[in-house]
Amino acid sequence: MLSTLIVVVILGVIITIAIANHPGSAPNALGGTALATTTTTPTAKTVGADTQASTIAACMANYSEMSTAIATYQALHGVKPPAGTAWATSKASGSPILQSWSTTAVGYQIEWNGVTLSVLPTTGTASHGSFGTASPATGCFSS
Question: I need a surface site. Which of 43, 46, 69, 116 has the fewest CB within 10 A?
Answer without folding.
Answer: 43
